[in-house]
């Protein structure tokens, strides 16, 4: 079938209308009529080839929420009319130790990215959520609980899970002090989720205008990273810091906030290698770690957690025709706190 989309034809080129051909629904597949797609900073990194060479034309989008409109003959998890979501990958090898452990996000074989990837045949390019439809194996699609509106649910499929997974792994909860670096798409979900888990949350931002929002979203404390007095006062106070920053920064400055044996988990993926001074780790036996999105079961757990706590993402809904402008604003840290494309506008 032909699918209407927006694509970037070449690195750093503006997004423009594009039509691609999508496979027919197979026995284990479902067809999702995409209603909303979130804009992740990773879309911009990949379209700019920040992380290396990419596949063009590129239809970005790995925060997909929609309605199931067709199911294959062997499908058991979905029926027509269900709300379904798609995150950052649409298939993995299924046989490696990590896939078998439900940690598909760390697949040791071939992971089929939702876009800027190739299918298991290692040839067919994948196209993402800035489009009207997606066909996906039911095992890699998520059920969006009915009480979560699709627009606020879409960003959970990347921003939500990327924060939920490390917060769970490092056991954020009552009695733990969690720092979130950066109040963007990922960071604002980190504040909401860590708060809902019962942790004390400190937001560390380089934007002076975000304190009020941070507190409204659930932060107990706010530190402006350029406020040297406040940064000094908060030294050695946090158990876990999740670094969502997309740009090059002085990590030592932030590592000092972590207390004895605490951890900084990196999820932000800036273009250049991170640089740290060894003393920032050795001084308080601190750990520097990283985390990548989440597996299928954990994605479902996260969606259910958000639905139970009654929150999705804070969003600005846009028409696809505003996407280039929205990307510019993301680059300026000027988004409150996720842009979501209403894909109805693709039919305009
Ligand atoms: P975003 O909405 O642009 O948020 C990034 C935030 O970083 C900004 O809002 C800003 O927060 C802060 N920031 C930006 N430039 C900064 C600078 N020069 N100094 C200090 N802080 C700065 O982006 P996002 O969609 O949340 O994604 C964040 C990063 O995570 C990206 O690199 C993305 O590719 C990556 N990512 C990783 C995973 C994973 O699985 N590991 C998944 C998704 C995305 P303040 O204004 O509050 O300072
Ligand atoms: Zn993403
Ligand atoms: Zn695998």
TrEMBL record:
Record Gene3D superfamilies: Medium-chain alcohol dehydrogenases, catalytic domain, NAD(P)-binding Rossmann-like Domain
Keyword hit for Transferase: no
SUPFAM superfamilies the record matches: GroES-like (SSF50129), NAD(P)-binding Rossmann-fold domains (SSF51735)
Molecular-function GO term, any one: oxidoreductase activity, acting on the CH-OH group of donors, NAD or NADP as acceptor
Enoyl reductase (ER) domain boundaries: 10-341
CDD domains, sorted: CAD1
The keyword Thylakoid appears for this protein: no
Cofactor: Zn(2+)
Keyword tags: Metal-binding, Oxidoreductase, Zinc
Entries under SMART domains matching the protein: PKS_ER
Protein name: Unannotated protein
Organism of derivation: freshwater metagenome
Source species taxonomy: unclassified sequences, metagenomes, ecological metagenomes
């Amino acid at each position: 079938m032909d699918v209407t989309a927006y694509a970037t034809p070449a690195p750093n080129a503006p997004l423009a209308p594009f039509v691609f051909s999508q496979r027919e629904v197979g026995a284990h597949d479902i067809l999702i009529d995409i209603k909303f797609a979130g804009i992740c900073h990773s879309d911009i990194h990949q379209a700019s080839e920040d992380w290396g060479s990419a596949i063009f034309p590129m239809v970005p989008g790995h925060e997909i929420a929609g309605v199931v409109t067709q199911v294959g003959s062997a499908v058991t998890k979905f029926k027509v009319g269900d709300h379904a979501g798609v995150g950052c990958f649409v298939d993995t090898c299924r046989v490696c130790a990590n896939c078998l452990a439900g940690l598909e996000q760390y697949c040791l074989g071939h992971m089929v990215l939702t876009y800027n990837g190739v299918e298991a045949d290692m040839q067919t390019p994948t196209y993402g959520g800035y489009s009207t439809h997606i066909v996906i194996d039911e095992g890699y699609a998520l059920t969006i609980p009915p009480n979560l509106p699709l627009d606020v649910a879409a960003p959970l499929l990347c921003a939500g899970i990327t924060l939920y997974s490390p917060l769970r792994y490092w056991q954020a909860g009552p009695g733990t002090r969690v720092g979130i670096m950066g109040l963007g798409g990922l960071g604002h979900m980190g504040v909401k989720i860590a708060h809902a888990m019962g942790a004390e949350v400190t937001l560390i931002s380089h934007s002076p205008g975000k304190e009020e929002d941070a507190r409204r979203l659930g932060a107990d404390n706010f530190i402006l990273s350029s406020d040297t007095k406040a940064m000094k006062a908060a030294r050695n106070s946090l158990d876990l810091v999740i670094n969502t920053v997309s740009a090059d920064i002085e990590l030592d400055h932030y590592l000092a906030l972590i207390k004895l044996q605490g951890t900084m988990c990196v999820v932000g993926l800036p273009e250049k290698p991170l640089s740290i001074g060894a003393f920032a780790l050795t001084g308080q036996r601190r750990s520097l770690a990283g985390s990548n999105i989440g597996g299928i079961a954990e994605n479902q757990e996260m969606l259910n957690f958000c639905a139970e706590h009654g929150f999705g993402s804070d969003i600005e809904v846009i028409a696809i025709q505003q996407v280039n402008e929205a990307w510019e604003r993301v680059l300026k840290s000027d988004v409150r706190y996720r842009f979501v494309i209403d894909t109805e506008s693709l039919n305009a």
